[in-house]
Design goal:
It is a single chain. This protein folds into two domains: about 10-80, Orthogonal Bundle (Rna Polymerase Sigma Factor, Chain: A), CATH 1.10.1740.10; about 85-175, no CATH class. The chain is built from eight helices and no strands. It has helices at about 10-30, 30-50, 60-80, 85-90, 120-130, 135-145, 150-155, 165-175. Helix 2 (about 30-50) packs across helix 3 and helix 7 (about 150-155) runs antiparallel to helix 8 (about 165-175).
């Protein structure tokens, strides 16, 4: 079994994997500066734990695992912040009967591709929609559908402190599927 060193191996890993880690983080977070910070935190954590890395997986897999935990921690902390949505946020999309405004109603997405997340136009529309959500709703949706947290972990880690009907409904629905 190879013994990994913080000085030599980590230097090589930074050169080799920084770009891949950054792209993954920026995709999951949608904030380039925060993505850079999470990649730095990933390498700092790897430097602290490199002597425990046994090489049972590739260094890239290990680093991505650390990054994914950093992303989950970020969303968990963000999810514990109180929701402060302005009333006009809802009035943009819903009428006084809590139904969709006709012009803001979601449209059918006609797509032949098997994976819409690979479609750049779809990603642009998805990002625009996510950015239009209140911060904590944005977090709930990203955690559920983009980070792929297990249902029980999602429900207990994020939703328990949210006093919000929509997030509670999302959590309840996610447990049913």
């Amino acid at each position: 079994m190879k013994k990994y060193s913080a000085k030599n191996d980590l230097k090589e890993w930074v050169a080799r994997y920084t770009e891949d880690l950054y792209y993954r983080a920026s995709y999951k977070i949608s904030d380039n500066d925060l993505a850079k910070d999470l990649v730095q935190e990933t390498f700092l954590a790897a430097a602290e734990k490199i002597t425990t890395f046994k090489g049972e997986s590739s260094p890239k897999t290990w680093l991505f695992s650390i990054l994914n935990h950093k992303i989950i921690d970020y969303y968990r902390k963000k999810g514990n912040q109180p929701l402060q949505a302005e009333p006009e946020t809802f009035s943009k999309f819903f009428d006084h009967d809590e139904g969709w405004r006709i012009e803001k109603r979601p449209q059918d997405w006609h797509e032949e591709e098997s994976n819409l997340l690979d479609n750049e136009k779809f990603q642009d529309v998805l990002k625009e929609c996510l950015d239009a959500l209140p911060s904590q709703w944005n977090t709930c949706v990203k955690l559920k559908y983009l980070v792929h947290l297990r249902k029980r972990q999602f429900f207990s880690g994020v939703i328990k402190n949210v006093k919000n009907k929509a997030c509670e409904e999302l959590a309840a629905r996610s447990l049913l599927t």
